[in-house]
Amino acid sequence: MPASRAVPRARLPRGLAAGAALAVLCACAWLGATVARAQSGGERIHGYDVAVVIEGNGALTVTETIEYDFGAAERHGILRDVPVRTRYDDEHDRVLPLTVLEVSATAGASADYRVEHAGGSVKRIRIGDPDRTVDGRHTYTIRYRLDGVLNGFADHDELYLNAIGPGWDVPIDRASVTVTAPGAVTRVACFAGPVFSRLACDDSGPPAGNVAQFAHGGLQAGEAFSVVVAFPTGLVPAPAPILEQRWSLRRAFALTPLTVGAAVVLALLLAGGITRLVWVAGRDRRYTGSPVDVAFGTPEGEEQPVGLFDGGPYPVEYESPDGIRPGQVGTLIDEHANPLDVTATIVDLAARGHLRIEEIPKRGLFGSTDWRLHRLETPGELVPYEQLLINHLFADGDEVELSALKRKFSEELQEVVEALYADVVARGWFRRSPSRTRALWLGIGLGVLAAGVALTVAAIALTGFAVVPLPVVGAGIALTILHRAMPRRTARGTAALSRVRGFRRFIEEAEKEPARFAERANLFSEYLPYAIVFGCTERWAKAFAGLAEPPPTRWYTSTNTFSVIAFASAIDGFSTTSAGMIASTPAGSGSSGFGGGGFSGGGMGGGGGGSW
Length: 612
Description:
Elements: E1 3-4, H1 12-35, E2 44-54, E3 60-69, E4 78-83, E5 85-87, E6 92-95, E7 98-105, E8 113-117, E9 122-127, E10 137-146, E11 151-152, E12 157-164, E13 175-180, E14 187-193, E15 211-216, E16 224-231, E17 242-245, H2 249-252, H3 257-282, E18 285-287, H4 291-296, E19 303-305, H5 326-334, H6 339-351, E20 355-360, E21 370-375, H7 384-393, E22 399-401, H8 410-426, H9 434-462, H10 470-482, H11 491-508, H12 523-534, H13 537-543, E23 556-557, H14 564-583, E24 608-611
Helix pairs in contact: 3-10, 5-6, 5-8, 5-12, 6-12, 6-14, 7-8, 9-10, 12-13, 13-14
């Protein structure tokens, strides 16, 4: 956090008055906090002597001699709390850097110490040994240095110090303060008693050269002893408070030419980098040349990224290109192996004679239609994901009801999905599994997002540049969103996709020319699984509505009267229902923070202490 000593002397009285007021409030807070530690064993301080030397560089060397009587109480030692921060103005705190130089104690008491934080504005010197206790009377001597305490004015420099702060929770029988200045002392004052008291201390004799001495007969718990010593300017470097900008959300997100400019430049760089990354890593490849070359390749096999405006129209294909299966088609089109692709595969396996689907009418008013799958031993080669699906469906026998798979098939479905991804990679349509590509880029996006959030939080806490890392957060969000688009088809995959889209045109436009299908038997059943994947089952059915299409009793049985439209609707229902059932997870599983007049306790420093 930036510190500043370059403060105009004319501003100091206002700032110091505000600092003094806050110091008093802090003192009151410490006093309230220490009430809970009030001693019950007659603890007190018999003598508290403070020797302050103002060094030529403006720092203070303070030596405190504290004669502490623990009485019958068994304690480890004493605590000395020193204020090191107070409010200066609306944006800054005044800080008093503390350096402990030496601690000593009389025989029988430990002089071990450690310096620790006791709240945001106080440092605590904990003196004693946690493994030893002391009682009775012991004398502790603490020597430390404080910086930034002196105040500068037009006609003099001044030390206004709470030599003994209001934070002590035991009475003090006798107190004295000696201040040695770097030159002749011109004026002195002192105040003793409760916080805000303007009563003078018992003894503040005239200064003797560069030394001022003060004494007071006694202080009750929570009372303070403050001294004021003035000396000519020029004896020390011009005093100026050491300031630290106070944290605020407004400061953290300061909109300055530097922060805004840096944020804009970073945002432009990240936007350009992400655009380039998506184009290079996520853009599909295609063969160079004409649409025919794109669909079938060229002897040279030269490739290029698919352009932003490449696409259609695609020449009509009247059959599935190269015998591509429905599940493969669905995965190729949207780069996802969905449950619907798997159920379309079930229908395709049935149409090809590897299983039979039996419709079970719903029972009762609130029942629902179910289906029973029968395994058939039919010759014909199955690709690995199809064989895996057959094996999982009929793991317990040659018949299975679809409802029996509900909440029991999710793990098996995932295996089939992974096998389907492996199939499209093996065919050369993708260089790696689209699922793994998405997972990789999702991880990268979340990593960038986490880094951006961490940088922003650090900037908020430590600087005024929190605007600058915000583009990193935006980049992480963008990558997280774009991860779904990062799977990249190879040129071979784009060629297959081009032909599949031509086949889709054929399915979608079949209703326009129904007569051309009359000559080919079983075409309706053969292409129905593809219509499921393309989402145009109804259109495909309408193309055959007026034709004498035989009922597909070989692979689908139902008690309902057959019609092409009704059958297509039933298959749609089967596909949708089965996709939901086989994808359902087991029940109970989860998814995935100085002044216009002096008074006692109104100076810098002070604090208090106690025993522990």
